[in-house]
Amino acid sequence: MDFGFSPRASELLGRMRSFMDSYVFPAEGVYDRQLTEAHDPHALPPVMAELKEKARAEGLWNLFMAHGDWGAGLSNLEYAPLAELAGRSVIGPEVFNCSAPDTGNMELLALYGTPEQQERWLRPLLEAEIRSCFAMTEPEVASSDARNIRTRITRDGDVYVVNGRKWYTSGILDPDCKLIILMGKTDPKAPTYRQQSMLLIPRDTPGVTVLRDLPMFGYTDRLGHGDVLFEDVRVPVENILGGEGEGFALAQGRLGPGRMHYAMRAVGFAERALRLMCERVTERVAFGAPLADRGVVREWIARSRIEIEQVRLLVLKSAWLMDTVGNAAARMEVAAIKVAALEVAHKVVDRAVQAHGAAGVSDDTVLARLYAITRALQIADGPDEVHLRTVARQELARYEKTGTKTGTKTDTKAGAV
């Protein structure tokens, strides 16, 4: 396995690090203030528009896109350290046009969209002229199992008619959101994984109603997490993405790179939290000595560093496997990093909150926000339990195929790539 960064990745990493230090980190406070002062909590703060223009001019733009000529053409392994670095700031990924849900949606359009769909939606998304959202999760069912989805997509001549309710539709309240990619059922009688389809729905289509903006642990996200009702929403049949019955397969294709992006951003969260913790404990004195001299604090720091290094290597291995043997062959590792990275990030953030005391639970630092994000992401994009199920199933399959029993035979496949 070769985890060494290519010359191009190293060069981009150096330029992004300089950009983050010079522009992004200093802009965080300005971004929050402009958001607080705005009449619309979902409007784009002016400083973000300025940062995006700077990033585009620097060539630090659409770095996530590995498909065709649409983006920077980086491999997953090349993009991984860039995703981590951007993730050290809550606003970082958006600055470089590398933030969810647009990244996953753009990948779907690049892989499965028709030329007409790509021209109408993908190009404007790559130019950051519009934003998009992804409507899959539903309030009435356990949406971690796509077979439970109830939203119906019914064909009526040359149009599809959509009826259903979605929630935590992230991004739909952004004023620039122009596209909804919706997952629904076109044929409930088809084989289990051929019932679902994806549909491209213009945001202003009649019948799309945002019932409320859902908070995340009390935080109102700028992009918004919409509770959305679809009532007799009619769109042309050419708005189907991929084809009828392809929805589940498309969703799986979307999730591989997306989970690597999530995981590396989580490593970035953890690095930011560890830095804040180290700075805090060297400055604060309690009971006659700096907090950094306390054994328990040193253990927090040591364990955090060890855990971050471990999970980073696991994510890099996953990225390398995705590049060399494909997403399907790396399925176990991709599932594992979603669990491990967010678990480590949340644990490190929790220690940093404790080290900060009252400041850790306030909005004086980014830690409370990171705490909410890392906890929520253990549910979003598939809860940890679903990924653990995948890992266990893959592991057990090795033994079922070989009939291996512990202590009687060595399974040469166990632990192999």
Describe what you observe in this structure.
- The protein is of the alpha+beta class and 417 residues long.
- It has twelve helices and ten strands.
- It has helices spanning 7-37, 46-57, 76-86, 92-95, 102-112, 115-126, 247-283, 295-324, 331-356, 358-361, 367-376, 384-402; strands spanning 131-135, 152-156, 159-170, 177-185, 196-202, 208-213, 225-236, 240-241, 285-286, 289-290.
- The strands form three sheets. It has a four-stranded mixed sheet with strand order 1-4-5-8. It has a four-stranded antiparallel sheet with strand order 2-3-7-6, with no helix packed on it. It has a two-stranded antiparallel sheet with strand order 9-10.
- A hairpin with a 2-residue loop joins strand 2 (152-156) and strand 3.
- Helix 8 (295-324) runs antiparallel to helix 9 (331-356).
- The longest helix is centred in the middle third of the chain and has 37 residues, at 247-283.
- The radius of gyration is 22 Å and the shape is globular.
- Residues 408-417 have low confidence and may be disordered.
Index terms:
single chain; 417 residues; alpha+beta; 4-stranded mixed sheet; 4-stranded antiparallel sheet; 12 helices; 15% strand; disordered C terminus
Overview in brief:
The chain has 417 residues and is an alpha+beta fold. Helix content is 50%, strand content 15%.
Q: What is the molecular shape?
A: globular
Portion of residues within helices: 40-55%
Strand order of the largest sheet: 1-4-5-8
Number of helical segments with 4 or more residues: 12
Q: What class would the helix/strand composition place it in?
A: alpha+beta
Distance between the termini: 10 Å
Radius of gyration: 22 Å
**H-E order:** HHHHHHEEEEEEEEHEEHHHHH
The number of distinct β-strands equals 10
Q: Note the beta-strand portion.
A: 5-15%
* Poorly predicted regions: 408-417
